[in-house]
C-alpha cells in the first residue's frame, strides 16, 4: 500500500535542531506564514464539517430502509471517505510542526527548526487528503446522478431532494479544499531544502515526494477539480452529466464567491468563539442556545462520559512551563482515543477540544511561559466545566 494511503501511518518523532539562519531567513519567514495560514484555514472549515456530519446522520438514519438502493450504497462509501478525512486530524499535525517555527517578525542568527522528517510527514498527509477529497468529488457526482433519476420519477421526492442538496454542498467544499491543499503543498515543498536532516530518515528510500502535487494527481485532478461546467451544458443523467447543470453556476467566479462567503462566515464564528472570556460571563453554550428558536426545553440526562460539573484545578499544579502543557495535551489526546472514560476532557466534543487547541496555539509564541501556563489553566477549566 502506498505511503499516503496508510490509515495508521506512524508519524516521526517531533524534533527540532539548532540551525544558523544567515542565508535562509526569507525562507523561514515564508514557511512560518504558510504554516499559520494552514492552521487558520483547516481549523475554520466548520461548514464542511457540518455537511459531513449531516451525511453521517443521514446514512445512520436510513441505513435499514434504503440499504438495497444503489445511490444509498454510494452515500455509505462517501461517508467512510469523510470519516477517514476526519481521522487524519490534520490540524493537530500542523500544530505539532508549527509549534517549533519562530515568529515572523524577527529571526535570530541561531534558532531551532523542525527536522525535515516532520515536514515530510505533513506533505504525505496532504497527498492523502487530496486523494480522499477527489474521491469525495467523484462519489458526490455519482450519488447526485442517482438522486436525480429518483426525483425525475417523483419517488420519495423530499428525501432525495434533501440528499441532492447535501451532495452539492459536499462537492463544492471538497473541490475548494482540494485546491487550497495543493496550493499549501506547493508552498511547503521548497522548505525541505532548508530544514535539518536526522541520522534516521523517516521517508522510505524508494518513496519520492512529488514537486508538484497537481501533476502527481494527473488528469483526474484536471477533470474533477479544475474543470468548470458551462450554463449551457445539457442535463444528462448518464456518464456525461455535470453537477453544475443543477447548481446553475455560469462562471468559476460564482463558485469561488460562494465558497468565500461560507468560509468567511465560519472564520468570523471561530474568531468570536476564540476570544478569551472571564468566568463571570455567560457560557458559550447558553449564548448559542439563546439564539435558537424556542422549540422546547432541553432535558438533562446522566451520561457516563459527561463533563464534570466541578474540576479541581490543583490537579494541574505539575504544569509549570510550555513544554509541560504540550506533554499534557499529548497525553490527554491519547487518553481520549484509548480510554475516553479516564480523560480529563471526557464529555467534551472533538470540535470543542480542537477549538481549545487552536486558541492555545495562537498565544503560544506571544505569551511568556508563566503567562501561557496561566492562560492554559483558565481555558482548560472553562472547557471541562462549560455549561455547568
Notable features of this structure?
single chain; 388 residues; mainly alpha; two-stranded antiparallel sheet; 14 helices; 2 strands; 58% helix; globular
Quick structural overview:
This protein has 388 residues and is an all-alpha fold. It folds into 2 domains: 3-229, no CATH class; 313-387, no CATH class.
- Tell me the β content: under 5%
Element-level helix/strand string: EHHHHEHHHHHHHHHH
Helix share of residues? 55-70%
Query: Which residue ranges are poorly predicted, with pLDDT under 50 across at least 5 consecutive positions?
Result: 231-251, 273-308
Q: Which geometry do the CA atoms define?
A: globular
Could you give the order of strands across the largest sheet? 1-2
Number of domains: 2
Overall pLDDT score:
77
Structural notes for this entry:
This protein is mostly helical. It has 2 domains: 3-229, no CATH class; 313-387, no CATH class. Helices cover 58% and strands 3% of the residues. It contains 14 helices and 2 strands, in the order βααααβαααααααααα. The protein has a two-stranded antiparallel ribbon with strand order 1-2. α5 packs antiparallel against α6. The N and C termini lie far apart (47 Å). Mean pLDDT is 77; it is low at 231-251 and 273-308.
Amino acid at each position: 500500500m502506498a505511503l499516503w494511503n496508510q490509515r495508521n501511518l506512524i508519524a516521526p518523532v517531533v524534533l527540532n535542531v539548532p540551525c544558523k539562519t544567515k542565508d535562509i531567513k526569507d525562507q523561514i519567514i515564508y514557511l512560518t506564514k504558510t504554516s499559520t495560514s494552514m492552521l487558520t484555514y483547516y481549523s475554520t472549515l466548520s461548514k464542511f464539517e457540518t455537511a459531513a456530519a449531516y451525511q453521517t446522520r443521514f446514512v445512520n438514519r436510513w441505513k435499514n430502509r434504503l440499504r438495497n438502493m444503489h445511490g444509498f450504497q454510494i452515500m455509505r462509501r462517501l461517508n467512510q471517505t469523510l470519516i477517514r478525512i476526519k481521522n487524519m486530524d490534520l490540524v493537530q499535525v500542523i500544530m505539532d510542526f508549527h509549534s517549533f517555527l519562530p515568529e515572523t517578525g524577527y529571526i535570530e542568527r541561531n534558532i531551532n527548526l523542525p527536522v525535515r522528517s516532520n515536514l515530510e510527514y505533513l506533505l504525505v498527509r496532504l497527498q492523502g487528503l487530496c486523494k480522499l477529497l477527489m474521491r469525495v468529488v467523484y462519489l458526490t457526482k455519482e450519488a447526485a446522478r442517482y438522486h436525480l433519476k429518483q426525483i425525475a420519477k417523483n419517488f420519495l421526492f423530499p428525501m432525495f431532494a434533501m440528499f441532492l442538496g447535501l451532495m452539492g454542498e459536499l462537492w463544492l467544499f471538497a473541490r475548494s479544499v482540494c485546491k487550497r491543499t495543493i496550493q499549501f503543498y506547493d508552498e511547503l515543498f521548497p522548505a525541505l531544502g532548508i530544514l535539518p536532516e536526522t541520522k534516521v530518515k523517516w521517508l522510505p528510500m524508494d518513496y519520492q515526494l512529488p514537486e508538484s502535487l497537481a501533476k502527481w494527481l494527473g488528469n483526474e485532478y484536471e477533470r474533477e477539480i479544475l474543470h468548470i461546467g458551462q450554463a449551457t451544458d445539457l442535463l444528462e443523467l448518464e456518464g456525461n452529466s455535470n453537477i453544475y447543470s443543477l447548481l446553475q453556476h455560469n462562471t468559476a467566479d460564482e463558485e469561488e464567491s460562494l465558497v468565500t462567503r461560507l468560509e468567511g462566515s465560519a472564520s468570523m464564528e471561530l474568531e468570536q468563539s476564540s476570544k478569551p472570556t472571564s468566568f463571570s460571563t455567560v457560557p458559550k453554550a447558553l449564548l448559542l442556545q439563546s439564539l435558537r428558536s424556542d422549540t422546547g426545553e432541553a432535558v438533562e440526562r446522566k451520561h457516563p462520559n459527561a463533563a464534570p460539573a466541578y474540576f479541581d484545578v490543583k490537579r494541574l499544579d505539575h504544569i509549570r512551563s510550555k513544554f509541560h502543557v504540550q506533554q499534557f495535551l499529548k497525553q490527554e489526546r491519547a487518553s481520549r482515543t484509548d480510554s475516553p472514560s479516564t480523560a480529563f476532557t471526557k464529555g467534551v466534543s472533538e470540535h470543542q477540544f480542537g477549538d481549545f487547541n487552536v486558541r492555545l496555539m495562537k498565544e503560544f509564541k506571544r505569551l511568556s511561559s508563566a503567562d501561557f501556563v496561566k492562560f492554559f489553566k483558565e481555558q482548560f477549566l472553562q472547557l471541562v466545566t462549560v455549561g455547568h
